[in-house]
Design a protein that fits this description.
228 residues, alpha/beta, six-stranded parallel β-sheet, 9% strand
């Protein structure tokens, strides 16, 4: 037996992710839009680790800005949200904090200022719209619908900090993958009009993907550490 297999058998334990224990579902009629950042915009970094980027005058000309600013101001989507009593929160990635001022708020969507509470957004959101971000795992853990807006997949991985791995959004993801603006609006509008019920197909994926969906992850990890 190779040494590394013996090591895995001895050291790796399936116990769950401790941070998931802090997730508390307090869903409101809230649509959370929480995209990741982009490494291909040639923005100028601020000094310091994880400091984000300096304000860019060219940011508003990017496809990223046009997509998300249009989404949170889409007349059809806003009309459906008003009809069903939903509001929205646009939560920009901290790397793009300086660009928050570029996005246009309205009577339905609020532009969240940095810093905001991720835990609060996870708890109160009824639907999450993201792209490639791992925040989808937190939302899915609570069995709430996720929409993946991946209009720029071909360019996203060019110059970003990570590459595509084993996880396939179409095969393994917790919600529909929308490859353009119209599909994103249609999918999100459909969820709103259906009171944001999670489709059975994706609920089954959640139950298959996560070994545990309880509040005992910390306990299991602690117990496994003690056994070591």
């Amino acid at each position: 037996m190779p040494w590394w297999i013996a090591l895995l058998n001895k050291e790796v334990k399936l116990a769950g992710f401790p941070r998931f224990d802090t997730l508390n579902d307090r869903s409101e009629k809230l649509i959370v839009v929480m995209p990741s950042w982009r490494g291909n915009m040639n923005l100028i970094p601020e000094e310091g680790i994880r400091a984000g980027f300096k304000y860019s005058e060219t940011f508003k000309r990017s496809g990223y800005f046009r997509f998300y600013n249009s989404l949170i101001n889409d007349a059809g989507l806003l009309g459906s949200m008003r009809k069903k009593g939903y509001r929205g929160a646009f939560c920009i990635h901290p790397h793009f904090a300086k660009q928050t001022v570029d996005f246009e708020a309205n009577d339905v969507f609020e532009i969240k200022e940095i810093p905001f509470s991720y835990q609060e957004m996870f708890a109160k959101g009824a639907v999450l719209v993201t792209d490639y971000s791992s925040v989808a795992f937190d939302f899915a853990y609570m069995k709430k619908p996720v929409v993946y807006a991946q209009f720029d997949r071909e360019t996203f991985y060019e110059g970003h900090t990570y590459d595509q791995g084993y996880f396939s959004y179409e095969r393994d993801g917790f919600g529909p993958v929308c490859e353009d603006y119209d599909r994103t609006v249609q999918t999100l509008t459909g969820l709103v009009l259906d009171d944001c019920r999670e489709p059975e197909e994706y609920r089954e994926r959640v139950e298959t993907f996560f070994a545990f969906t309880d509040k005992d992850n910390c306990r299991r990890v602690f117990e496994e550490i003690r056994r070591l």
